[in-house]
Amino acid sequence: MVATLLLLAVAQLATAHFGLEYPTWRATTLGTGHNYSQWSYPCAGVPGNIAGGNRTDWPLTGGSVVLDLHHPWSYVFINLGLGENVTNFNYTLTPQFLNTTGNGTLCLPTLPLPANLKVEDGTEASIQVITVGESGAGLYNCADITFKADAKPLAGDACQNNNVTSVAVKDQKATSAGAVAGMNPVVLSSVVGLAVLFVCGMSL
Ligand SMILES: *[C@@H]1O[C@H](CO)[C@@H](O)[C@H](O)[C@H]1NC(C)=O
Ligand SMILES: *[C@@H]1O[C@H](CO)[C@@H](O)[C@H](O)[C@H]1NC(C)=O
Ligand SMILES: *[C@@H]1O[C@H](CO)[C@@H](O)[C@H](O)[C@H]1NC(C)=O
Ligand SMILES: *[C@@H]1O[C@H](CO)[C@@H](O)[C@H](O)[C@H]1NC(C)=O
Ligand SMILES: *[C@@H]1O[C@H](CO)[C@@H](O)[C@H](O)[C@H]1NC(C)=O
Ligand SMILES: *[C@@H]1O[C@H](CO)[C@@H](O)[C@H](O)[C@H]1NC(C)=O
Ligand SMILES: *[C@@H]1O[C@H](CO)[C@@H](O)[C@H](O)[C@H]1NC(C)=O
Ligand SMILES: [Cu+2]
C-alpha cells in the first residue's frame, strides 16, 4: 500500500490542486478562507469526523468517486481506511493507478473493494484521494463514508466525465520500482512540498 505514495524525486513544476466532489470531502481545501493544504499527508490537514461528521453513504461492494481536476494531466490514487476517524489508509481501491488527461470532471462509477476487505451495513470508513502531477508531489483530499446496504453508485447525470479521460496504469509495483522515469516511492518531504508551493502557491 505504501507503494501508492509515488513521488518524483525533484519538484520543479506546478502541480494540480483538485476537488473531491463525491463522496463529499471532509472540508473544502481549494481556494482561500481556510488553513488546509492539499500538500499535507494524509488528508490536507483536515481531521476526520469534523463538524459532527458529514458522512456519505457508500455501497457495500464499492461506490463512486467524482473528482474536479484542474491541470492537463494527473495520476490518481484512491485508498480507503476503516474506522470513524481514519488516518491509516491501508487499502488501495486503485491497484492500477489512473493516468487522467484533461482538466474537468472525472467520475469513476464503481471502485470495487479489495477482496480481503469485509464491510457490513454501518461500517464507517474514509476515502483518501491522492493526485500526483508534473511536480511529482502528492496532493491529498479525504472524504468520510458509511457503508450502507441500500446505498447505490452514482449513475446517469450524476456520473459524467467532462473533458477528462483516464487510463489504468498497469503493474503499479513495476512502476514504483522505476518504470516511470524519475518516480520513487519516497515519503513526501516538507522540502518538496515547500519547493512546489513556491511555484504553485496561489494558482489553483
Ligand atoms: C488560520 O490561521 C491563522 C493563524 O493561526 C488564524 O489567525 C486564522 O483565524 C485561521 N483561519 C481559519 C479559517 O481557521
Ligand atoms: C455536509 O455535506 C453537505 C452535502 O455536500 C453540504 O451541503 C454541507 O455543507 C456539509 N456540512 C458540513 C457541516 O460540512
Ligand atoms: C480540456 O483539457 C485540456 C487539457 O487540460 C485543456 O487544454 C482544454 O482547454 C480543456 N477543454 C475544456 C473545454 O475545458
Ligand atoms: C481524530 O484523530 C485525531 C488524531 O488521530 C485526533 O487529533 C482528533 O481529535 C480525532 N477527532 C475526533 C473527532 O475523534
Ligand atoms: C488496516 O489497518 C487496520 C487498523 O488501522 C487493521 O485493523 C487492518 O488489519 C489493516 N489491514 C491491512 C490489510 O493491513
Ligand atoms: C500519463 O499521461 C500523460 C499525458 O497524457 C503522458 O504524458 C504520460 O506519459 C502518461 N504516463 C503514463 C505512466 O502512462
Ligand atoms: C481547462 O483549462 C483551460 C485553460 O486553463 C481553461 O480555459 C478551461 O476553462 C478549463 N476547463 C475546465 C473544465 O476546468
Ligand atoms: Cu496547484
TrEMBL record:
InterPro entries: BIM1-like (IPR046936), BIM1-like_dom (IPR046530). Residues 1-16 form the signal peptide. Pfam families: BIM1-like_dom. Keywords: Cell membrane, Glycoprotein, GPI-anchor, Lipoprotein, Membrane, Signal. It is a lipid-anchor; GPI-anchor. One of its GO terms (cellular component) is plasma membrane. Residues 16-163 form the Copper acquisition factor BIM1-like domain. It comes from the Eukaryota. It is found in: Cell membrane. Its main location: membrane. This is Copper acquisition factor BIM1-like domain-containing protein. The lineage of its organism: Eukaryota, Fungi, Dikarya, Ascomycota, Pezizomycotina.
